[in-house]
Amino acid sequence: xxxxxxxxxxxxxxxxxxxxxxxxxxxxxxxxxxxxxxxxxxxxxxxxxxxxxxxxxxxxxxxxxxxxxxxxxxxxxxxxxxxxxxxxxxxxxxxxxxxxxxxxxxxxxxxxxxxxxxxxxxxxxxxxxxxxxxxxxxxxx
Length: 141
Known about the structure:
Elements: H1 2-34, H2 45-72, H3 77-105, H4 111-135
Helix pairs in contact: 1-2, 1-3, 1-4, 2-3, 3-4
Function: Catalyzes the oxidation of protoporphyrinogen IX to protoporphyrin IX.
Membrane topology: Multi-pass membrane protein
GO molecular function: metal ion binding; protoporphyrinogen oxidase activity
């Protein structure tokens, strides 16, 4: 099933890239929404990106990873660590969605620090997944 592993890696790359790009989109949307004027009529890019790119990539990465786990029957300590890092990435993903809703509703308080906190959690999850996957060939049983 190399195609399944390829799908998993491709979806994970898109999802991780999305988690790194969403904070920039949110920061820009926050600046545009605070400055009233013609920028109020701009298209809702953060919501479109979140719903059309980031979330489908996340769901595809999680589903294909689950299928890989079920098909190959792999179980080890590294998998538990990887799933913990994926939980951090999912939490950051959900936080970005919440922040998009706050900006759309006009509630700008605490959005900037929460955006940085979610980026930190996402970055920690991404780096943890990468570290665990690269260390996995050391045969952690």
